Hints:
Layout: E1 3-8, H1 13-23, E2 31-38, E3 41-48, H2 51-58, E4 67-73, E5 88-89, E6 95-103, H3 106-115, H4 127-140, H5 143-153, E7 156-164, E8 168-174, E9 179-182, E10 187-190, E11 202-205, E12 210-214, E13 219-223, E14 228-229, E15 234-235, H6 251-256, H7 259-266, H8 271-283, E16 286-291, H9 293-308, E17 313-317, E18 332-338, H10 344-355, E19 359-364, H11 370-374, E20 377-380, H12 393-409, H13 420-431, H14 434-444, E21 449-454, H15 458-473, E22 476-481, E23 498-502, H16 509-520, E24 525-530, E25 539-542, H17 551-569
Parallel strand pairs: 16-17, 16-18, 18-19, 19-20, 21-22, 21-23, 23-24, 24-25
Antiparallel strand pairs: 1-4, 1-10, 2-3, 2-4, 5-6, 6-7, 7-8, 8-12, 9-10, 9-11, 11-15, 12-13, 13-14
Helix pairs in contact: 3-4, 4-5, 7-12, 7-13, 9-12, 9-15, 13-17, 14-17, 15-17
The structure holds 5-amino-5-deoxy-1-O-phosphono-D-mannitol.
5-amino-5-deoxy-1-O-phosphono-D-mannitol binds next to helix 9 and helix 15.
Amino acid sequence: MCSIIGYKGNEHASTLLIEGLKKMEYRGYDSVGIATIKSGKLLIRKGVGKVAEVNKSLRLDELPGKLGIGHTRWATHGGIVDSNAHPHLACNSTIAVVHNGIIENYHELKDELYRSGHKFNSETDSEVIAHLLEEYFEITGDIRLSMIFTCKRLVGSFAFVAVFNSSTLCGARYDEPLIVGVGHDDYFLSSDILGFLNHTDRAIFLDNRDIVVINDSDISFFNFDGDRISRKITQVAWELGDADKGKYSHYTLKEIHEQHQTIVKSMDQDKKNLEKFCKIITDAKNVFITGSGTSYHSALIAKQIFSKSKIHVEPIMSSEFQYSADLLDENSVLLAISQSGETADVMHSVKSAKEMGAKVLSIVNIPTSSLARLSDSYLEVNCGPEIGVAATKSFTSQIALLYHVADLIGKKSNGIFASKDVLTKAIKQVLELDSHIESVANQIKGSKDIYILGRSLHFPICLEGALKIKELSYIHAEGMAAGELKHGPLALIDNNSIVIVIHPNDSTYGDTLSNIHTIKSRGAKIVGISNKKDEVYDYQITIPTINESLYPLIEIVPLQLLAYYLSICNNANPDYPRNLAKSVTVK
Ligand code: M6R
């Protein structure tokens, strides 16, 4: 999704802006631009493409000045064209703005500004911010007031950063993250700490309705009502910036191969914090659980593992949550799962839950995220930076932690904590199948549709496996409960079909085997993920035998690898799938 960076200090701004934008590339974008101020003059360059490409053709990093802003845009309002790339300028070219989020009332604002004589150069919602700032600056002659008046007019979600040619850098946030990086004698403003972490580990996390104004003499904070406020500096962990591909060709492959270590880290929790978290669940009358995409699949698994521990939890997809929010009250708990902790659908669910008086718990990978900061208690999955857009190691870490929590509060244990070493070994064994899985991918790469079947705990893994195949390889894939096949989807099966079956030798084995025979007799090719050899499979991926309730943690790994190799076969870039963003901060 879009990324923001701003800099004011003694260094060459454009070099730092480009560096920051590159660090945030994993979030996904389609165009890039920067603006700097030099001797009171605003200079701007922007275009469609990746940071390196646009920099090569437009020499963004040669723009002079020690103050500037930069942006990578993920199109929402207006096509992917140069004119819609940020920064956007006010009419007199003395103010430039970069924005993340959506200004919902931009039509109305644009009409009003148009009537006052403003000219627009883009189709974006963001451009209205530059013109509003200009309008209010003309009236008040005061940057702080023009920021306050502008923020009050905006409806929707936003983090924006503006430069004024009078050498001032400003920012404001509402429902989109914005962080100040505090250097020795310089400041950064960014949507992600990775934007400045190479230069400083001292950060100020702005709250909703905060405005920051940085001029030559000081930095000051205000709320949208104009009251001066103070904000604390937090020391952030340097390791967050420590993300490179190592010996792997892609971040996604590296992150898949880290999972035998990361699942263990997720169970390494501060005892007191974990107890507090668990107590909120045990004290609640109703427990709801929410997430989006992969994190929603973790919620579906949580339902089953908590139910094995005799605890009822109700999963609700975050994008659908608002339609069920009435079910919550002050005796309820909402457990939100999110790798980034910034997903707009999740944040909206949490806010609705809070309005209903419910307590909010979260499981996140980024402890400084908006979600963690809004929660009554949160746990970190500790899996390190996940750069690949597809969630891989964060998924297994989320579910390992959910097993751990369920076991601590439940009447019956799934046995995850005792099985840590067994699981590490089992995941390692599956990772060693890497080249076999690559060869299976080569056999099935031409398929147009792939179905993934399984029952019980394996069903959410079918959904997750299908999501990985779709997003990485662009092949249509569908996860299904194996028993549902005969109720309709069987009509699709013929000798062109590829069906992957999650089929360990557990309580689901016999019923799923009958389904496999039904499919096989209609000509489909079967890929079996199982710990038991069987001739019914055309291709087998053999997984180790483990405690029945823990299979999801290992059986997702071959599906992630298969999706990765299918993307390579199809010449896609697995780290940056088309049209997708790592952190989905729009509804
Ligand atoms: O950061 P989150 O866990 O809240 O992200 C939720 C989804 O956007 C995310 O899991 C998405 O589905 C992944 N790209 C799937 O691989």
